[in-house]
Write a structure and sequence with these properties.
The chain has helices at about 1-5, 10-15, 25-40, 45-65, 80-90, 120-135, 140-155, 160-170, 185-195, 200-210, 215-230, 255-265, 270-285, 295-310, 315-330. It is mainly α. Helix 13 (about 270-285) crosses helix 15 (about 315-330). The chain is globular.
Length: about 325
């Protein structure tokens, strides 16, 4: 590999061990590395994840190191790929996108995963909680920093931290979920999903009923956010205002349907949100039921499994039944 990339062996070993972070390369060299890896036959999907991995590194470094620079969580809305990379470093959970890729044994001090040492994880979450508490709430960047930092604190599995996070989130569960878009809509959604992660699904069910159902602005905001989160929107966003687009432009409906279909089994705490979003997506774009035969079949099978297995709300059961009938009629 070193010969193919025209670098010395110590450089490759430094990349693998972390002694020479790839993120510290010059931009032109990093671009050349990515192009060369693809030409050598590397999985393009994995090479693309370098962006998410470096974003995760920036968030971790900014949280562990006190600087006057704006925190990365206040600069852009991060995606699922970045969240999965953060979870890998903070909890040891391997990203689903890498589940089918083997991890070969290497010589030398190469770690099995990017899991941070326990003291670093403890320091990260402690400072992240302080960041969430100190984030200003009078501008869009401060609101973005607060909601994203607060959501990431739910990755801390320690009993003390879980109690703090649950208390902080429950203090925010009363966020106004008025009909239509408000600046607090995204924060209320993140709060509800984080509580669901911690085992309390009631706020998420309430949010779906109060801020999404029969509300075109709320439904559009949810679809726009899901499309961005799952990689269906190609452009990065610096704040939450993109969710206001009622025309549902700027993202690919097929990519969103694929992400919802194949991510459903990875989301035991968010099944009702997944189901409602799939129903809303097919309502907005009924042609999707004919877009891809295999995708539609896989979605139909997952819908049957959920309907047979239970564990979803009555509303979700009605919506999933409707989705299943539409798919069955079109296949």
């Amino acid at each position: 590999m070193a010969e193919s990339l025209r670098v010395d062996l110590a450089t490759v070993q430094g990349w693998e061990s972390g002694r020479r972070p790839v993120a510290n390369m010059r931009a032109v060299d990093l671009l050349g590395l990515r192009r060369r890896l693809a030409a050598l036959g590397a999985d393009a999907a994995v090479v693309t994840l370098l962006d998410a991995a470096m974003d995760a590194d920036r968030i971790i470094c900014a949280t562990l190191t006190s600087t006057d620079a704006p925190h990365p969580l206040a600069e852009w809305v991060h995606t699922r790929s970045t969240a999965h990379m953060l979870a890998w470093a903070l909890t040891g959970t391997r990203p689903p996108s890498l589940s089918g890729i083997p991890s070969p044994r290497r010589r030398g001090p190469a770690a099995d995963s990017p899991l941070l040492p326990a003291p670093d994880r403890s320091a990260f979450f402690e400072r992240l909680r302080a960041t969430a508490e100190a984030a200003p709430r009078n501008d869009v960047q401060g609101v973005l920093l607060h909601r994203q930092a607060l959501y990431l604190t739910s990755y801390d599995n320690s009993s003390e931290a879980a109690a703090w996070t649950a208390q902080a989130l429950h203090a925010r569960r009363g966020l106004p979920a008025r009909r239509g878009w408000t600046p607090q809509w995204a924060e209320a959604r993140s709060t509800a999903t984080a509580l669901a992660r911690l085992g309390d699904p009631v706020p998420l069910l309430d949010f779906i009923e109060r801020a999404m159902v029969d509300d075109d602005a709320g439904e559009a905001a949810n679809l726009n956010y899901w499309a961005y989160w799952l990689g269906g929107a190609p452009l990065p966003q610096s704040d939450d205002m993109f969710m206001r687009d009622r025309q549902l432009t700027g993202w690919d409906p097929v990519t969103l349907l694929r992400g919802l279909t194949y991510g459903l089994h990875h989301s035991p705490g968010y099944v009702d949100l997944y189901v409602h979003t799939m129903w809303a997506l097919l309502t907005a774009h009924p042609w999707l039921s004919q877009a891809s035969g295999r995708l539609v079949r896989d979605l139909g099978e997952r819908a049957e499994q959920l309907l047979d297995g239970g564990g979803i709300s009555e509303r979700s059961r009605r919506e999933l039944t409707s989705v299943h009938y539409v798919l069955r009629d079109r296949t």
